[in-house]
Write a structure and sequence with these properties.
It contains 19 helices and 5 strands. The protein has 455 residues and is α/β, with parallel strands linked by helices. Strand 4, helix 5 and strand 5 form a beta-alpha-beta unit.
Length: 455
């Protein structure tokens, strides 16, 4: 009998327009064999995830399992052990998977491929989580792009592949042992519905009543003006090409959103070309930047994590992050700038905290977004661009609607003081901390440290 196939699901938890799934099914069907849909719950990743992130993933897996007629096989453990084991037990010749450019992901994939090859089996990459697979685009000299604008020009020239039709009458191999799906942890937050169906429902809603105003409203944290598609893109319930096919690049707002998808691809490409940039400064000249350590720094970092810095816009964003596993992109930049340039904490600590809590936490986008703010990345903001949290708050949440939602201690503070309650005649209200630092003084200190890296 011809060997079976495995579809190794990772961050592609959908059946529609999934090239790897379609290829795995076709290969099995043409050989008169069967396919094993497999997801490995890797403790290396699962154990580091916050409760909201785990809840969302568990929901995505539950829907995928149902869509497969109960055929999803879930195994707990190290993929380098689990996948060769399943392949050997069930006469599998080829394992199909999508691309991964993460440091751990590439090391894991190499280990799986080596173990399979030792047993005469192979692994095949058949899709990518990005509209343009990482490593595809190169400059005229054959090198990876370092500048987003140049990458964008090349990215726009790429054609989307044909839609991969969802296979019907799938020959799923029966009687393959599966561990129990991890029970979704209890959550108290109002999280987005997980899964492929919810992803398309959200996309439909955004295209119907959001994308046309996206360019003018996307920076308002108090409004539901962004797509909220990032969790679905992270877990592959929705692919960016499914979005791009429904957008009109001639429309300014549509094109603004398209460029955000290009940023996502650009950062994946950067990580693919410079894997060390996941947790180290891409720009070596910034590696000598002085950062604070010690007990006081740890206390300030804890205040930042808990949303107790005394800067309302920072605190509101951090509280939403922990409660919902999501934060508006403008607030991600404000919170990151505050940690790095007001508290002088290494950007890596903030990036790790975000990844632990964000439902949409994506290594390349998250960590290179942090490096953009910190001035250490490719095509980053200049280090001397330092967000003033009070001015940012007044500009993007002028009446304090967003702040009051997440910082109820400020519910009765007048609008003129909600961005800086310490400036009110009575000072900060009971239960809310005063500012833990003086922004003007820390801005000066940040610039001094930056100048020191240039001498």
């Amino acid at each position: 009998m011809a060997p079976n196939t495995i579809m190794w699901f990772r961050r592609d938890l959908r059946l529609a327009d999934n090239h790897a799934w379609a290829v795995a099914v076709t290969a099995a069907r043409e050989a008169g064999a069967a396919v094993i849909p497999l997801f490995v719950l890797d403790d290396e990743l699962w154990g580091r995830s916050g409760v909201n992130r785990r809840w969302f993933l568990a929901g995505c897996l539950a829907e995928l399992h149902a869509d497969l007629g109960g055929g999803l096989v879930v195994r707990h453990g190290d993929p380098a052990r689990v996948i060769p084991e399943v392949a050997a037990q069930h006469d599998v010749g080829t394992v199909f998977r999508a691309q991964d450019v993460g440091v751990y992901g590439r090391r894991r994939d190499d280990a799986v491929a080596k173990a399979l090859a030792a047993d005469g089996r192979r692994i095949e990459e058949a899709d990518s989580p990005w509209a343009v697979p990482a490593g595809t685009l190169r400059t005229g000299t054959g090198r990876a792009f370092k500048v987003y604008s140049a990458y964008l020009r090349a990215w726009r020239q790429q054609s989307l592949p044909a839609t991969a039709r969802r296979p019907s009458a799938v020959p799923i191999l029966e009687r393959v042992r599966s561990d129990a799906l991890s029970k979704a942890p209890a959550v108290t937050a109002d999280l987005p519905d997980p899964g492929e169906t919810a992803a398309h429902r959200r996309l439909d809603a955004f295209l119907r009543s959001g994308v046309d105003e996206y360019a003018s409203t996307r920076n308002d944290p108090g409004a539901d003006a962004t797509s909220r598609l990032s969790p679905y893109l992270k877990w592959g319930c929705l692919h960016p090409r499914q979005i791009l096919r429904r957008l009109d690049g001639r429309n300014t707002s549509h094109d603004t959103f398209i460029k955000e998808l290009a940023w996502r691809d650009f950062y994946a490409d950067v990580l693919d070309a410079w894997p060390e940039s996941a947790w180290s400064s891409w720009n070596p000249d910034m590696a000598s930047m002085e950062v604070d350590t010690g007990r006081r720094t740890d206390e300030r970092f804890a205040a930042w994590c808990d949303g107790r810095t005394g800067f309302p816009i920072v605190d509101a964003g951090m509280r939403q992050l922990v409660a919902e596993g999501w934060m508006h992109n403008r607030l991600r930049m404000i919170a990151a700038s505050f940690l790095v340039k007001d508290l002088h904490v290494d950007w890596v600590r903030g990036a790790r905290f975000f990844l632990e809590h964000l439902v949409d936490g994506d290594l390349s986008s998250n960590n290179h977004g942090w490096q953009w703010v910190a001035g250490t990345g490719t095509d980053a903001a200049p280090y001397f661009r330092i967000f003033n949290p009070t001015l940012q708050s007044a500009k993007f949440d002028p009446d304090g609607t967003y702040i009051r939602r997440w910082v109820p201690e400020l519910a009765d503070v007048p609008a003129e003081h909600v961005h800086d309650p310490s400036a009110a005649s009575g000072g900060t209200p009971a239960g809310y901390p005063p500012p833990i630092v003086d922004h003007a003084a820390e801005r000066t200190e940040a610039l001094r440290r930056y100048d020191a890296t240039r001498t």
